[in-house]
Amino acid sequence: MLFTPIIKQKKGGNKSSLQPPLPGGSQVIGVFTGISVEVCGAEDIRKIYENGFFGKGSKSRGAPKLITTGISDDTESLSLELEESAFLAYFLGILCIHDIQ
User: Which end of the chain, N or C, is less surrounded by CB atoms within 10 Å?
Assistant: First the structure.
């Protein structure tokens, strides 16, 4: 006897649940600092934070100032924890990690 579960379709169920949070093919460059990975480009910060809420601002407690106010601060970067950077680099393949030197 073959068991097939009955699954109700959720509202807005047209979206594929297997779609990754970030589009494939785009590359983001991060710098490994020893305890985290820092992403410095404004467009890269926006791409990573808005498509999955990865990381936090280096000068703020949560979202980077670029996201909350729309004003770009050149000295603020997006700080990714090691788990987040490993997920973005090895599973999604969109983060290219460089050494601090």
Answer: N
Q: List, in order, residues 6 or more apart from 49 with CB less than 8 Å away.
A: 55, 63, 64, 67, 78
In this structure, the number of other CB atoms found within 10 A of the CB of residue 101 comes to 5
- What is the CATH topology of the domain spanning 28-99? MutS, DNA mismatch repair protein, domain I (3.40.1170)
Tell me the pLDDT of the chain (101 aa) as tens digits. 677 777 766 665 555 555 556 666 689 999 999 999 999 988 888 888 888 888 998 888 778 877 778 777 778 889 999 999 999 999 888 999 999 87
